[in-house]
Design a protein that fits this description.
Helix content is 45%, strand content 20%. By secondary structure, it is of the alpha+beta class. It is elongated and about 115 Å long.
Amino acid sequence: MNAERHTFMNIFGLSIRSVMRKRAKTILLMLIIFITSVFIFAGWACKSASVQTQNESRQAIGASFRLEENEANRHVRMDKLVKQIGEGAGGSAGGYHTGQTESGEWFTWTDNDFETLLMEDILKIAEVDGIEAYNVTTANTVVNPVNFERIEDKDVDPSSDRQQGVSLRGNLCMELDFDVQKGNIEVKEGRMITPEDTDVCVISREIADLNGLQVGDVLEFNNWKERETSTVYKAEVVGIYDSISGITLIMYGDSYRSENIIFTDLSFPEKPEGNEGSPLYQYATFVVENVDEYETVKERIQAVDIGWERYDFLDNTGMSDTMTENFGELEKMSSLILILVCISGIVIICLVFLFWLKGRVHEIGIYLSLGRTKCGIVMQMLLEGILVGCVAFLIAAAASPVVSKGVVEYLVDYQTKLQAEAEQLNAGMVSNGVIEDDREAEIVGVTVEIGGDVICLSGISVLGIIMAAITLSCISVMVQKPKEILSKMS
């Protein structure tokens, strides 16, 4: 045991002296291992980085979830109803209708019963333990303004806007409307709409100024398709809002412009539209009481017995737990970095050691003549590489947080650009009259933590690279006979 220990200490001492003596080659090797180590750190850091995003139309409402219609399931339900009615037959089923014009052309349409979120499902989710509050929002419903004027673009032909109306948006609790939460609008006069309100509205500053309206006045609305004959419904103005950054347009035309959006209680829009008792709920938002229980509440909600295939259940916080959840290709890119760095590190370090060994033929020959085994010589080379690697790794560990964050931010930016290019290909696409411009996510922060697990994995990776590279480079020594090596000394 003592002899083995003495042998090891002897090899260790020789390794240190060799490293100190060959300073230029040592510095070159240290630089290569440093660069390799930094990118190894970056590769592992990518896998544990967190990316904070803020979506333009799904910004954080505290910690919350959002329920909306699943488009794929909508088509599935539609196909079933078509079969139920019968191919080539007119009729109605489940809110889906088919008909034929006088010229013989077939046409189809859906009503609110088919398109709406189901209130019974919303209420089941709202009863889940951990849900503090919830809101239901209707689709923007165009109606005719009876006793007031709307805002119009003077440079646009008003006849291009067939409906010639204003948009009503109903909320169970206006305070939780996404445009209010995003800070797009602020109610400066009066108050917001509460669940207890009936037949009330909140109007824009522009409409109030144009018509000389104030809190307490009553507005009248009816069906835009039957302006002269349909029933008129009244709503009291309880608040006036100012646009801060404007409400995102969902369709073109003055009827949908930001200033012409009027917020109402949940049940009001269906009345002047002529669909009283048949609402069209477009979104439902559920606020989590305790942010720390966010994932637990999510699991409880997903366990609720409803027809989940009908809905998209969205994380409304605008935050991603890990980079790979929001950027599907990033994990692959991180793995690719690790593979490329490992391969290139092994190749380069191997070449450096081959160059190093060519200048050490006499030294190796002397060791052999003194009775050293080739395994002992290879062990010394490994120790030299590990000693240099340890110093380079420690320096890399100090520099890795800055470099790793830069690499992660670059990859996130690259991934975001790829997503933006893909979205541009689909620009201008409209589904059910809604312009799909609310999907883009803005990166507002990237967090990279070099924890113990990253350091450990990086250390193992770098050690493996050094050992693999040096072992490969020493093959040229191992395959030669001692006599061949000694003959080169002459």
